[in-house]
Specification:
With 357 residues, this protein is of the alpha/beta class. The chain is built from nine helices and 15 strands. The structure holds nicotinamide-adenine-dinucleotide. The site of nicotinamide-adenine-dinucleotide (NAD) has 24 residues, from loops.
Length: 357
């Protein structure tokens, strides 16, 4: 289907905004009309790389432009609601960087505003557009792993200590949005327990651990850390049939599928039906699915255009982003309670949007 090109403005020209600007400018669906930042020099340095893009430090003026149909927001999390609220009120579709907002209330306000105005609100959960994560979702949906038993996700490196959010709100949205996308029922932990530490006295957790018991007895564990000199981006998802390992820093083999595991059979051992477990180990092959290489942000900007054209929620819509914020808020409550397990209201299973590979 050929679509008309639409106009977009990128708000925030710091670290991540230039990547959005580059992908919008390269897209057949979009014309990059403006780059806006409170710091005009920054806006200029990005806009100057893309013919036809205006640099501005005046969001109101950018939003008043009739040739701007959508706004992509790459400002700090605490400013997302303010910028997105103005954009939605001016009738613009909105793409917001992760996390959707700095609180559940702010996120819910954005989702209501978008619904009220009939506009697309999409979160940039970038990893949900990577070939590796798409393949993980496909393998799990096809039953290649069997029932999920555990998830272990590690995201550690020397990271920028963010001024407005802690390490959970900065890094865990990646892991949580991936789990929401690949697990058959979406991200629906029965509880959240968090422990965090601030060993340098930065005023917020700089490293931490999330424990998420899942429906059916499985457990997900997420480790995030801004202070690690080594960079690790790894997720292990174990199932009753197979286990997959995603190592995002190994481009020659990002995904490995292990046909190995533990089988446990319960047998009756006497007439009053006492039972005994018999354990055996499967030692099969390991294989690496072939993966295409493409920049996920190119798929993000295409998905935004498709959702607008087709009048449907985006793959990573406001509801998906709120499921992530719900877990982060429960993690805050757990941290405040010294790591206590905080029960979560079971979210409804997400509607599955068909995903082209
Ligand atoms: N998807 C990803 O993989 C990914 C990666 C990095 C960052 N991010 C997200 O992108 C967002 C921005 O992060 P960053 O690292 O680029 O931050 P940054 O601090 O480098 O840049 C933010 C920019 O926004 C500008 N700004 C602040 N308030 C503004 C406002 N009201 N109007 C216009 N401009 C404003 C600042 O002047 C600055 O230039 C965050 O939500 C972050 O979590 C996402």
């Amino acid at each position: 289907m050929t679509r008309g090109r639409r106009g977009v403005a990128v708000v925030g020209a710091g670290y991540w905004g230039p990547n959005l600007a580059r992908n919008f400018a390269a897209s057949d669906d979009w014309d990059l009309r403006a780059v806006c930042d409170l710091d005009l020099a920054r806006a200029r340095s990005v806009a100057d790389r893309h013919a036809g893009a205006e640099a501005s430090d005046d969001l109101t003026a950018v939003l008043a432009r009739d040739d701007v149909d959508a706004v992509a927001i790459a400002t700090p999390a605490r400013t997302h609601l303010g910028v997105a609220g103005q954009a939605l009120a001016r009738g613009k579709h909105v793409l917001v960087e992760k996390p959707l907002a700095h609180s559940g209330d702010a996120g819910r306000a954005m989702v209501s505003l978008a619904a009220e105005h009939g506009l697309v609100l999409m979160a940039d959960h970038t990893y949900c557009y990577t070939p590796a994560v798409l393949k993980m979702r496909e393998l799990i949906a096809d039953g290649a792993l069997g029932d999920i038993l555990f998830v272990d996700s590690v995201r550690i490196n020397l990271g920028l200590v963010q001024p407005d959010v802690d390490v959970f709100w900065d890094l865990a949205p990646h892991d949580l949005s991936i789990l929401d996308f690949v697990l058959p029922g979406g991200l629906r932990p029965t509880a959240v327990a968090a422990s965090g530490a601030d060993p340098l006295g930065a005023g917020k957790a700089c490293l931490g651990y999330l424990n998420l018991p899942l429906v059916g007895g499985a457990m997900a564990h997420v480790q995030v850390n801004w202070l690690s000199p080594t960079k690790i981006r790894q997720m292990v998802i174990g199932g009753t049939r197979r286990t997959l390992v995603w190592d995002d820093l190994n481009p020659s083999q990002r995904l490995s599928v292990y046909d190995r595991g533990v089988d446990l059979t319960q047998q009756a051992v006497d007439t009053v039906d006492r039972r005994q477990a018999s354990i055996s180990y499967r030692l099969g092959d390991t294989w690496a699915p072939a993966l295409a290489e493409h920049e996920p942000l190119a798929a993000v900007v295409t998905e935004l255009a498709a959702a607008i054209d087709e009048g449907r929620p985006a793959r990573t819509d406001g509801a998906a982003a709120l499921r992530v914020l719900d877990v982060l808020e429960a993690a805050d409550a757990s941290l405040a309670a010294g790591g206590a397990r905080i029960g979560t209201a079971p979210a409804a299973a997400p509607a599955r949007i068909g995903v082209p590979a």
